[in-house]
Design a protein that fits this description.
mainly alpha; two-stranded antiparallel sheet; two-stranded parallel ribbon; 9 helices; 10% strand
Length: 227
């Protein structure tokens, strides 16, 4: 990845709130390039190792419930670009029409879906996004457009880097589903309370971006998954 000129950013990112984060990343252009090379090589290795397990997971999803194996949803990544993120389907078909956020006791989640979510196996197809450059192994988790519309000027800085399969925020909010089940209006709670807190972690990641930091977050993610 290379940093484009600040004046070439989308207009809603050319703000004083975004500039400090842009300057930090601009000084780390070599690290960003190294990050992309490692993402590319790592994604090839991971696909080779996990291709058969992913086929098995796909087969189990197909046999256990009606609908497609892969769930696709529009998310936002670098510089505000939209893409369709891939996940193994963990919910009954049409469930997202009832809301995009899920709680821990959500009956829309299938039996195998609960297992996949517990160990984050539903995220595995995103390794193909890492290979193509739409995502990175470590970054900030991509939000749906309507939540991006709620971003403050400073939050827009999280779009300076590719969306990540894992992130500091996703580690800190690994129990997000349990948190949301306490509230009657989960959408309101997410926008007003959880989203700002997650963005604080995302901005902290950008301000401290570095190769060793990424390695730490990868290891931390693996530990938290099996904790």
């Amino acid at each position: 990845m290379r940093m484009i000129p600040f004046t070439s950013l989308p207009e809603n990112m050319q703000t004083e709130a975004v500039k400090p984060y842009y300057d930090i990343l601009k000084k780390k252009s070599k690290s960003l390039l190294f990050k992309r090379v490692l993402d590319f090589l790592a994604s090839i290795i991971i696909i080779c190792i996990l291709f058969l397990p992913m086929l098995i997971i796909g087969l189990l999803i197909k046999l256990s419930s009606k609908g497609p194996i892969i769930y696709k949803q529009v998310r936002v990544t670098t510089f505000g670009k939209r893409f369709r993120i891939w996940k193994f389907r963990t919910m009954k078909v049409g469930s997202d029409t009832l809301g995009e956020l899920t709680c821990s006791d959500d009956d829309r989640v299938t039996k195998i879906g609960k297992f996949l979510r517990k160990y984050r196996l539903d995220e595995l197809p995103q390794i193909f996004h890492v290979l193509s450059g739409k995502m990175s192994i470590v970054g900030t988790r991509p939000e749906v457009p309507r939540y991006v519309d709620e971003y403050t000027d400073e939050m827009m800085a999280t779009l300076l880097m590719p969306a990540g399969v894992t992130s500091l925020a996703s580690i800190m909010f690994k129990d997000e589903a349990e948190l949301l089940e306490k509230f009657s209006d989960v959408d309101k709670e997410y926008i007003e309370v959880i989203l700002p807190q997650k963005m604080e972690y995302n901005l902290k990641y950008i301000s401290r971006f570095g190769f060793r930091r990424d390695l730490y977050l990868i290891v931390k993610t693996i530990v938290e998954v099996f904790h």
